[in-house]
Fold:
Amino acid sequence: MGNRCAVIGVGQTRYQTRRRDVSLAGLVREAALRALEDAGLTFADIDAVVIGKAPDLFEGVMMPEAYLADALGAAGKPVMRVHTAGSVGGSTALVGASLVQGGVHGRVLVVAFEKQSESNATWALSTHLPFNASLVVGAGGYFAPHIREYMRRSGAPDHIGTLVAVKDRLNALKNPYAHLRIPGINREMVESTPMLWEPIRYLETCPSSDGACAIVLAAEDKVTGTPAWIHGTAMRSEPIMLAGRDVVSPRAGRDCAADVYRQAGVTDPRREIDVAEVYVPFSWYEPMWLENLGFAAEGEGWKLTEAGCTALDGDTPWNASGGVLSSNPIGASGLIRFAEAALQVRGMAGEHQVEGARLALGHAYGGGAQFFAMWIVGSSKP
Amino acid sequence: MREVAVVAFAQTVHTGHDTGLAEPELLLPVIDEVKRATGLKRFGFTCSGSCDYLAGAPFSFVSALDAVGAWPPISESHVEMDGAFALYEAWVRLQHGDIDTALVYGFGKSSMSDIREIMTLQLDPYYLAPLGLDQVSYAALQASAVNADRAALDEIVRRSRADGRANPYALDLPDPAGDEFEVEPLRPYDVAPVTDGAAAVVLAAGDRARELAGRPAWITGIAHRAEPHYLGMRDLSRSVSTAEAGRAAGVGKGPVDVAELHTQFSHEEPILREALGLSGDVVVNPSGGPLAANPVMATGLIRIGEAARRILDAAADRTVAHATSGPCLQQNLVAVLETSA
Structure:
């Protein structure tokens, strides 16, 4: 894992449908300046900048890191641009951390963003490579069959997805940056919304958001302010077209979790991890990932959700921030998970703080549930 | 830093036209080749570079994983940049000390699109892209700024194309001829050709590298730097980011036998030579360089591969590789490769 590395600054924009008041550069700069302010630093203190976002087709700017270098104070410094599909926000944090863990840099600024209002994401996700078949279904259409298969295997009752949709939006009401803050959110409201992709209803999906998230990472001798120490990092990928791969509980996710738990010394994630920020873009992915990540036995994840274990006051809170279901600037969504995990162990999560959180998991996935990025952060040194 | 070397390099026989192969089909043979060369079937880390806009579709790197054989699942990442920057990420990852090998690849098919217009979309979308400035036009601004001697540029193209004809992987392009301009002062042959291709490199650390190659090409320095995006904020006749990356990589600490430079236009060679402090007797782009084969997103990685190959093959003792990204050499990576770590 290399040298010790800590998150010493977190900055987020308010996530919303359209940020007409800022350019792409203005958006990322807003998050970056807030992260620097949190760390008590300026751009001059930063050695390298790592930028992440999902497909460039979302904004129509090819490799925008070139254009964004100026706004992020990166002139004269190394800039990297990461793209690993939906997991990219998480991967971007890991690439930034790697620069510190490898002893190459002392302080790294990591920024991820999406300005989804610039285009139509479902369209941008539906075009296909030359010589390849197109599903023309967007993300929801792709994942709905995986969810139905989970329901068939586990025998989970139909309302579990609704519970997640309500729980995450209740949490979002405590997060000032969250996009969907729906007063009076309840099961009836979710169940009254249109069915988009059976069994996913409108309020069981993530929104399309504009927003950016930034973190400052530091080597041990460069730590300022309140650190969240990195206890483990892992990435795993598997091929989308592999016949026989289990799309309901992908092996890449299980392997990635096993790797990051081993590094952090975690043997019983449900007991030892105080709060988890997990990439749940469609409500049913909470029970599915509870099992994939080893918080519940196979077929048992939905029972934790139903029993309220994953609520903010439950025994294993998931997505205290409101999660991807409440804010989804796609390229940033993974980094927001990683950043919120850091905020929790720094004790700086505000109203959605999980009392006494000392160890937290950040998780992101992407592509056809085939790319995974995870880290575990803690309040004490590893 | 931990000792890391290039131990294997493979590239496609690049073509100036679409041969009907999809990206994974381009990649599979070169990945097989580096696996055979090293005997490795699994790697501690895998990293690739590609660009969605070349394929005109999101996630062009996703199907590439099919060629890697990523099962059981692998520790893997991707940069939306040239494969040279993927190699940098892999080099950093090897510094952690817990893994000893890494696979790096880059691929691109510029035959399927108009790269000259696509590159316009890389510019600031509010103030620059709407001007419609295409890649050759902004390169021509830089060529004007550097004010290179026409005979010298012609000689660079003549030499590159002759070297390319001698390189079985590069295109067969005729000696430069004609006096029309593409965009003044650039002639059509000053512009790197449309090319489809892919490349793969295996990195290994310490004793693992010594086991895998007789003469590992040790990366004794590697660094990259960006400059401001706006052309008006830079002195286009110079490349300060290349100079700074070259200093950080230690180019000047010893004699350079060969330099493989990511010159997408002939006038970039004198700019880069000056920035790296390469004297006139340093052999530049003996492979023919990008002016003889430019598979976008693999071109920079191929520079590192070609510079390493000369050490692996005992044709040189100390080589330099350069890769670039962004308009008018905005961001530059420099690596120094040597026979001893």
